[in-house]
UniProtKB/TrEMBL annotation, chains A, B:
NCBIfam families for this protein: PRK00733.2-4, PRK00733.3-5, V_PPase
Matching InterPro entries: PPase-energised_H-pump (IPR004131)
Cofactor(s) the protein requires to work: Mg(2+)
PANTHER family: K(+)-INSENSITIVE PYROPHOSPHATE-ENERGIZED PROTON PUMP (PTHR31998)
Family, as annotated: Belongs to the H(+)-translocating pyrophosphatase (TC 3.A.10) family. K(+)-stimulated subfamily.
Cell location: Cell membrane; Endomembrane system
Keyword vocabulary terms for this entry: Cell membrane, Hydrolase, Ion transport, Magnesium, Membrane, Potassium, Sodium, Sodium transport, Translocase, Transmembrane, Transmembrane helix, Transport
Protein name per UniProt: Putative K(+)-stimulated pyrophosphate-energized sodium pump
Class of the enzyme per the UniProt entry, highest EC level: translocase
Membrane topology label: Multi-pass membrane protein
Function text: Sodium pump that utilizes the energy of pyrophosphate hydrolysis as the driving force for Na(+) movement across the membrane.
Catalytic reaction(s) noted: Na(+)(in) + diphosphate + H2O = Na(+)(out) + 2 phosphate + H(+)
């Protein structure tokens, strides 16, 4: 049983994908409605495909460049395999394919939901949520399939499918990082490009259509209306999918890296513990695999019976599915952790030394992750939910004008960082206290295990939104729109909480990657009491702020191009306002597509360029690689801390403005008077929403990608800055050998001094446990004095244990 | 000559204060104008005094509480002297007194400026700038007087006025930190309270007066108009003064702490180098003293001759004074550094070991500081200046409504962090590369040396603004207002650049304090690869965001109270609109005063409470003090990085909105059409300015106080978390003695093991240099293994130097 555990996650992933195909063909078999509906739906589908195709062209170019760069790195860095290029390309392809599946099903499900809504609400929910399920399982299934598939391949190639030592496993995982980098790169395009697309189309459609021409939203006479509906899919479906695909892969990868580190701390060999000695590395994949099946079960529970159901019942159905999934993940974590991990592990806590950690403590860490995933949604819901105090306050402040509305919205977003950050900080602390950074990474893994379910809940929103748009454009009976509106309204809430989940996952993923980075570089930690590291912490903190500004400006520019085009069509196409002339939808789609991809270049360059500059410019000037590694670590920490703050701030401020505006639709009480749409207060609230739109749909969600991609680039660069560079540029080499013979352990030290500035010692410790010899290699690097001191520490430890040390050290 | 250098700064400070008194009496002798003008001016003066008195009452209470807390600390921590309480009280009193001087002279100078403007512009400048000069010299003179005075006293008390060792000097400086804490606490009240006051009064006056009642700004019929004018003094004069007073003291203190650390690195005794062996400690004070005299010279150069001068000439006159000061500071730094510092120093760079640093490199570090001070003003000027690209862009975006205006303003503020942060990061790196953290602290000291000049330039703005208000209220000839408007317009520019200077000073001061903190606690650095430290970095990053939101909300609440009161007076006082009924100005002043002091409690509590909680809660739970010290350090770094970012973002966004709005006064070209006040675009720009007001005058500038006070509280707590706690709670004590006898050095080691988790070694190294015996004490603390390793490193170093080591280590 244990031996085949390595294939378990892949089997579960395939099972999930199989279910996805079944569900997909079920959705596709549903009635797609009459001519007009189908026509509109086809427009949206084609627009979405047009964006995907344009994106893929650009992507192919990008993937080519990065592949060449990676190949160059592989050429110069001995321990980096060329296979990282393959992994990278497949990571990109898998992510793109997952996005493709999601986008296709979403644009096919929308019209079927409209059609179903003509008969009943339960049917409409069944179909829209079915579409979401396909999307969710596609993303999660492909993520697990790709990651575990490549792991098995590399494990065979580099280690012949059996445990050798932690060094070899490190190379396996370093190569696997290419897959994650590929996935996250696509997420950059999908999330940032998609975010710009959706808002440019939205603003363009509203500004000329609603404001200038005075026609309602989703009116088929508006040339930008198709682009607007495509945008919902591009931004909310494909963007979110790519984001979570990236998080999923990166989290599991980081947990695997840290699992390998646990094995290192335990002496470099735990074959006797079963699972081929790679239990801690396999565990995150197993949790991910289990999560897929659990999500399938969860999605099956989402159903309503009454045709007269309201938002609360629909929300309730989703909650049952969601909470069941979370509870089942907790259960399966308990089973997998106790089964796959050694009962007691040794983990090295920086500054606190080696500690014994029971597997139960790892389980507690996973509970921390599940807790955070659940609570962050409530926090988001509180700050952005209709009828809650913060929203009522913004509504109140709208009565004195747009200025006070804006201040109130900004303040709400800012204050919402308080509980969110305390929650994250508490989670970091707790999961670390339970099981070190392995605990942090597993907390993230457990949280991400329900990704398929989360995505299903998340994707059904924009599908319902689209369904409503199609109902409007094809002039259906009002009851149809009413039914889709119920779904849409619930979708708005789940969109907000989904964003909370995405931030939480990005934050924990980044931390796990950050920890994995430190272990890859072999540095002792990141000391911000070194000025260059502190300087980079500042620079890192600045990048999310500038990135957000660029993204916001990009929306403005792209929207302006759209406005010009819509104005031109209204002017030049005869009979367009009377419904006799046909608007050129495809031109608007093309503008959104081109503008969004063009405008995402600069923020993308910022994201990718900075870490590369920080790593390579000092390297060219001959700076010591370990010092650079620390600087880059400082930069990564700066980006993560600032990025999480700005993500929460922007998402919640944007969400709050949006719902403050929506509050006016049902009417709100201001200073004792009922106030409705069209009032001055409502106009002020609309202004707030205009500011909030790019916040919550473009710059805010982009922060997730920024922080994850930054940490991933760091992780891929890590081996270049790590111990591996020691092979090059040695000034002088001198070998010092220490043979220590205490109890059942033999210690050999190769002490290589390359200069007074840089030395390293390769320490081989052979242990005889249960009549088996296991050897662990430990590399210590630093200045000569530092390495000297470390070796002395090693000796001092052995004397603590009352063992005899024979110091045969000779200097040559 | 060298012996009396310790009294030099105090003498220069007294000289500066003497000049201030001369200038003050000259200003007071000027004609204060006729009855109406004098009446209005008296109202403003009394309103300002009312605020000060209310503030002082609250302060006395606050100072009492903190004094008791400090006394408790002094009682329990053996090495903390009760004198820290005295230093704290005097720090508070000196800062309050400096604020009092500034506020009094500002409110007396305004009316004299109006009167002088009736005759000529050069006279008006002479008087308004004269008032600014009094303010600047009062702040700088009292700062240097208090700090150096207390240093001399503590130096006598703890060291008998002669060098003993670095440990004693550390106690001197730890006690002196009380003075700085007192000063910065007042700054919290003055800057945050003042910031809330000025905007509450401004918004209240505008909302009811201009918008509802339709009367012009500064109209005497508006009951809030006096409060509004008081606000200019409270916020821009007293607030800025207290801010820079705090920065000045903190910077010099931090540089002294790091100077002592240099002496430690050099073997603990440099008496042979002259200046009683405290050259590196004296130097920052000497630079500050020289800066006062240089500022006096600089202010003398500010004058114009032509009565027809425009903004450019006035700005030119200020620039001549400013640049001359900066050049003279550079010259004096060169002189003082080469004179007072040893030609070559040894400094310990973390992770890089001991390096020889020439005194010239310290001079280069001071140049870095002067460069940053000059360039940051240009950066601020670019992003907020009239006619510059960012402002023109915001103006352009105003044409499509308030929403796009807001987005453009936010984006401008966000993007402005890019050059600013790169500048700071470069400065940190460069000054550290030149001379370690001592270099960073001296860069800050050099920049701050021109504080008196900066404040003079800064304070003349609000004085001129007030003068214009008095001209309006007392219905003077239009030429008077035209002249004061020229001064006011220049004042707006200097206010923006002054804010840049204040941020830069706060940022560098915090870094210097941060470095001093690490040396006080005796930790090795702050490793963010420990989860609790990383968690605190997150929490620290969040605090400035929440603080800003609280400050913004506070303005809203206080403004609402003001609105109610003004509405009540308009309603209830008969004949008020006809000018026959007299408005109750004092009631509005009282509301602003009470509301601002009440509303600043929560952000103040956040600032003070968090570091105390982080330090003491884990201490109560028995956490290891060094681990807490690192966590607190992570928190400080988080607050500093995030605080600097939010300060730049908010100040520049606010300044940009303000000037975008002002652009409409002269008319702007939008889409080929000249657009003026009253247009829709202008209304959108006014909305932007409403949002920007609390940004630039309340929450933005408060960030400076937040980051400095956080680092200062850390510094005061440091000794509690540092090596000193070793005296208490020892589990077991075991002495290991090493006697090493190599060359002319003798090394004795007292090895105290308190537990396996905590040990420390006190290493005394006696050197015989030039027939003099000097002894340095070095404390190493950490886990037993870590201390062991450090001692081994010491031995390994001695073997590197080819000396014989006799290891007589015996374990008891």
């Amino acid at each position: 049983m244990e031996a085949i555990m390595i294939y378990m996650p892949i089997a579960l992933a395939l099972l999930g994908l199989l279910y996805m195909i079944v569900k997909q063909s079920w959705v596709m078999k549903q009635d797609a409605g009459d001519g007009k509906m189908k026509e509109i739906s086809d427009h949206i589908y084609e627009g979405a495909l047009a964006f995907l195709n344009a994106e893929y062209k650009l992507l192919a170019f990008f993937v080519l460049i990065v592949s060449v760069l990676l190949a160059i790195v592989a050429h110069f860095v001995e321990t980096t395999s060329y296979l990282i290029v393959i992994a990278f390309i497949f990571g990109a392809i898998f992510s793109a394919f997952a996005g493709n599946i999601g986008m296709k099903i979403a644009t096919k499900t929308n019209v079927r939901t409209t059609q179903a809504a003509r008969t009943s609400l339960p049917n409409a929910l069944k179909i829209s949520f079915g579409g979401g399920t396909v999307m969710g399982l596609g993303v999660a299934g492909l993520a697990v399939l790709g990651l575990t598939g490549f792991f098995i391949i590399f494990f065979q190639l580099f280690m012949d499918g059996a445990w050798t030592n932690t060094m070899d496993m490190t190379i396996v995982l370093e190569t696997l990082a290419g897959f994650s980098l590929g996935a996250e790169s696509i997420a950059l395009f999908a999330r940032v490009g998609g975010g710009i697309y959706t808002k440019a189309a939205d603003v363009g459609a509203d500004l000329v259509g609603k404001v200038e021409a005075g026609i309602p939203e989703d009116d088929p006479r508006n040339p930008a209306t198709i682009a607007d509906n495509v945008g919902d899919n591009v931004g909310d479906v494909a963007g979110m999918g790519a984001d979570l695909f990236g998080s999923y892969v990166a989290t599991v990868l980081a947990a695997m890296v840290l699992g390998n580190y646990v094995i290192k701390d335990m002496g470099g060999n735990i074959v006797s513990e079963g699972f081929g000695g790679i239990g801690p590395v396999l565990l995150p994949m197993a949790i991910a695999g289990a999560g897929i099946i659990i999500s399938v079960i969860g999605t099956m529970l989402v159903k309503i019976k009454s045709n007269n159901a309201k938002e609360a019942q629909v929300m309730g159905a989703l909650n049952i599915g969601n909470w069941t999934s979370i509870a089942l993940v907790a259960l399966s974590c308990f089973g997998l952790v106790t089964w796959m991990l050694p009962e007691t592990m040794q983990m090295n806590f920086f500054g606190e030394g080696m500690q014994n950690i029971s597997s139960m403590r790892v389980f507690y860490a996973t509970l921390v992750g599940l807790f955070v995933g659940a609570v962050i949604s409530s926090v988001t819901e509180y700050y952005t939910g209709l009828g809650k105090k913060p929203i009522l306050n913004i509504v109140q402040q709208s009565s004195t004008g747009a200025g006070t509305n804006i201040i109130a919205g900004l303040a709400t977003g800012m204050i919402s960082t308080f509980p969110s950050v305390l929650l994250f900080a508490g989670a970091i602390w707790a999961s670390y206290a339970f099981a070190g950074f392995y605990g942090v990474a597993l907390a993230a893994s457990a949280m991400m295990a329900t990704t398929a379910m989360q995505l299903a809940i998340d994707a059904f929103g924009p599908i319902s939104d689209n369904a409503g748009g199609i109902a409007e454009m094809s002039e259906q009976d009002p009851i149809v729109r009413e039914r889709t509106d119920i779904l849409d309204s619930v979708g708005n809430t789940t969109a907000a909480t989904g964003k909370g989940f995405a931030i939480a996952s990005a934050a924990l993923t980044s931390l796990a990657l950050f920890a994995a980075y430190v272990t890859f570089t072999g540095i002792d930690g990141i000391n911000i009491f070194k000025a260059p590291v502190l300087a980079m912490l500042f620079v890192g903190g600045m990048v999310p702020v500038v990135f957000s500004a660029l993204a916001m400006n990009a929306v403005g520019k792209a929207a302006m191009e759209m406005v010009e085009e819509v104005r031109r069509q209204f002017r030049e196409i005869p009979g367009i306002m009377e419904g006799t002339g046909k608007p050129e939808y495809d031109k608007c789609v093309a503008i959104s597509t081109q503008a969004s991809l063009k405008e995402m270049m600069l923020p993308g360059l910022l994201t990718i360029g900075f870490p590369i500059l920080i790593a390579f410019v000092p390297l060219l000037f001959g700076m010591e690689p370990r010092a650079i590694a620390e600087m880059l670590g400082g930069y990564m920490a700066g980006v993560t801390v600032s990025g999480v703050l700005w993500a929460i701030f922007q998402n919640n401020a944007g969400g709050a403005w949006d719902n403050a505006k929506k509050s006016f639709e049902a009417g709100v009480m201001i200073n004792g008077e009922m106030t409705y749409k069209g009032s001055d207060a409502h106009k002020a609230a609309v202004t707030g929403d205009t500011v909030g739109d790019p916040f919550k749909d473009t710059s805010g969600p982009s922060m997730n990608i920024l922080i994850k991609l930054t940490c991933l680039i760091g992780l891929v660069i890590a081996p270049i800055l790590g111990g591996h560079t020691a092979e090059t540029g040695a000034v002088a080499t001198e070998n010092v050998e220490i043979t220590a013979d205490f109890a059942a352990k033999k210690v050999y030290v190769d002490f290589i001094i390359e200069s007074n500035e840089y030395a390293k010692a390769i320490i081989s410790v052979s242990s005889i446990i249960d009549d088996r010899v296991s050897t662990e290699e430990l590399v210590i690097s630093g200045t000569k004095a530092e390495v000297d001191a470390k070796i002395a520490e090693l000796k001092s430890k052995s004397s603590q244990f009352k063992m005899d040390v024979t110091d045969n050290r000779t200097e040559k």
